[in-house]
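Human: If only I could read backbone structure tokens as easily as an amino acid sequence. Underneath my words sits a plain record pairing an amino acid chain with its backbone structure tokens. Take your time, and here it is.
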Amino acid sequence: MAKVFSKKRQTSILFVVDASGSMGVENLMSKTKGLVFSLLKDAYIRRERVGFITFRGTKAELILPFTRSIILAQRELKNIKTGGKTPLSLALRKALEEIKRELLRERDSELILLIFSDGRANISLSGMDPFEEAVLIGKKILEKEVKTFVIDTDPTWINYPYAKDLAKAMKAKYLKLKDVVEGNIRDIIY
């Protein structure tokens, strides 16, 4: 008999948060921030790496590259402003870049991608339909074998299919924000 030591697999979580005008209604951003704050506390305890991308207007910004500094993540989260259009394909392209970078740095890392959006893309990189473009980029993320969740922030009773269709195209788990806020998202992710 011999002792065999195994290294715990590193987990890296990338938050992609929609900060467009639609997130400014019905306290959507504050609900989203509350959910992300609770996840950040858990990430700190588990020594996970976290990264942060926000998107609004005509740009997607990496506001925090992957780090273990949860304090930095919380500070950046507090400063998120809402307004403008929804450049979803820009955000997904930026997420793909960060995922590739993290996989080079942490080869054995398990990557989790959490996309908080209603999915209603209205800015295109190439001139094609903004949502179709976002789906194409989402499929490239799928190739990286990232555990992906699309959290639909649409507060309306109409139930637009955009976030659900994006999740389906990416083979991601689809969740409604109101359901996640009421439950334990950590149990859902793991």
